[in-house]
Every structure is written in structure tokens, then in C-alpha cells.
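Hi C.,

You asked whether I'd gotten around to modeling the 112-residue construct. I have! Everything is below, sequence then structure, no commentary in between.
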Amino acid sequence: QVQLVESGGGLVQAGGSLRLSCTASGSIFSRGFMGWFRQAPGKQRELVAGVIGSGTTNYVDAVKGRFTISRDNAENTMYLQMNSLKPEDTAVYYCHIAPTDWGQGTQVTVSS
């Protein structure tokens, strides 16, 4: 088990960009699935983007073409580049390494 620390959230206007980072306390080189989830008020937590060791990625339809997930095994860090942000992207974003490691969450607020 590793500890995950997220950063990069904040307040941005619609159309703007943010880059989230998730740094692990240990090596992620051999870990499989890693992903970013989000939870908006009153809604269930949902998977936004995921990446596996081979580099294969997947995205929820709502963010395809706007968000990019990446992982840097040498830096033990995962990223989520978010462009063309919309108010509906407002949520707490969590990083996750399967099977059980979660970050504390970082707030992303997009104003209209």
C-alpha cells in the first residue's frame, strides 16, 4: 500500500485548463490500473480516466477529447491534464491505484 498525494485543483473559468498530479509514496512501476475518479455533490463517485501499465488509456465519454491521463513511473506520479473545462466538471477529484489505494481528493471548481 502506498500513500497518494494529489495537487493541482482549484477554481477556473469555463474553457480554462488545470493539471492534476498524484504522487505516490512508493514505486508505481509494477502497479496495474491507475485512474482518476470524481464525485460531485449529491452524485456517486465515477471513473473519469484510467491507465494501465502498458499505457492503454480509457475515458468516460463526457471528457473524451478534453482530458488526458498519463503516468510517469520514474517519478511515481500520475497526471490528469484537463482542458476546455466545463461547469459540469466541478467535483472532488480522487486518484486511485488498484486495488485499494486512494488519495485524499482535490477540489476542482469551474465557473460559468
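If it helps when you're writing up: The chain has no helices and eleven strands.

Thanks,
B.
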